[in-house]
Design goal:
Length: about 475
Amino acid sequence: MLLRSFYFLSLLALGATQLTACAQAPPDQTPAVAPPPGAEKLPWLRNLLDSSAVLRPHAVALVLADAATGEPLFAQNEAKYFTPASNMKLFSLYAGLKLLPDSLPSLRYFSRGDTLFFQGTGDPTFLHGDVPSRRAFAFLQNAPGLLASCDIACATPYGPGWPWDDFGYYFQPERTAFPIYGNTVRFYATPPVGRVPSRLRVRPQSFAPLTGPVPAALRTPNIDKDTHVIRALDENRFYVVAPFNKRWIDEVPFRTSRAFMLRLLGDTLRRPLIGAPWRPRPTDVVHTLRGLPVDSLYRRMLRVSDNFLAEQLLLMASTTVGLHDSLSTQRVIRYVRKQYLGTLPDPVAWADGSGLSRLNLVTPRTLEALLLQLHKEVPEPRLLSLLAAGGRQGTLRKRYHDAQGPWVWGKTGSLSNNTNLSGYLRTKSGRLLAFTFLNNNHIADSGDIRNEMERVLRQVRARL
């Protein structure tokens, strides 16, 4: 009995000791998580972002690093995934830099007897309206004998996740193996002057017979007031909204097909050509005709954010990867991701070359790492010359002005409710920073977002 009482008293004493220890223990013993690199730096910048009435309602990320050393300077929401929009063109640029030679592959060909067999490589510059190359045109026009155009399997005309209702806008032409005129039609309107009536020029002229006044059925209430030309959904019929009382230029994609391309190319070359399978024999020597310098394409693609050039760039790059039996966007993406981007902080959801797809997702710190990698591998003067420059050219020409010259070079990325900018910033102290500034899911006007981004980056320039 005495032993049992002693045992009971011992249990009470032990319980009291444990209760006292629990009462004295801190309420949360979860080990503190180390802040991400740069999180503790530049509190004035964090306050600038957090206190902004324009930026506060939506998802915002800003990452800064020294371009020369890679030293992280600031990071906010750097590990979260964002829709990058046209900032994906930086990945396309990197793919081109790694896979393409100094001049674009315009077409592949071999001769047999009196016939020249040729096939496309995805080169978008064949009589393109903004980066035109006549190298392949002159080669085919002057080639002796018979011309045989050979088809090659190619990525689908539209990329995954592209908006279907953008088919009629200049920024979404179809992807093809042998583009011609940028796969678009251009319309040039001249208003009436005195007794001279209004005029409409169509380029290429082959589309003039397919152009007419807009029918009543297509005059829907939601037509944008700046719309001049409407294309039928599934055919090459173009309808002009008339009358027009001012000068304008409009560019509209046309529907592509194998038969239509053969007819259009024959009309353009003004010589007959046939379709034939690509079947070189072991004795046939296959050549690649070289076209424009690659920087001509990179510069146009990045400065004005040309979606078509970015998409075709990946198709051209695919001619250097694997077999030559197809032009594949996804083959290039898989190869570049595996061979060259393994050190990036986070995996990239990479769907297309242009950033048109909302399936693209990337973390800000991964975009920042790509900028640092580009700066490390490409001479700085060349790299900055490829990008839009504040106050000078491209999509930044109306912003970031300074009388002493550009101080921001970057790639803009815009989709509905998404406004982004990644690039390089020269501070007043002379330091070059790599920066990524992403704004996703905002309902504010994109102009207001851009104004606020400029206000913040001007502070960064002045204080760093």
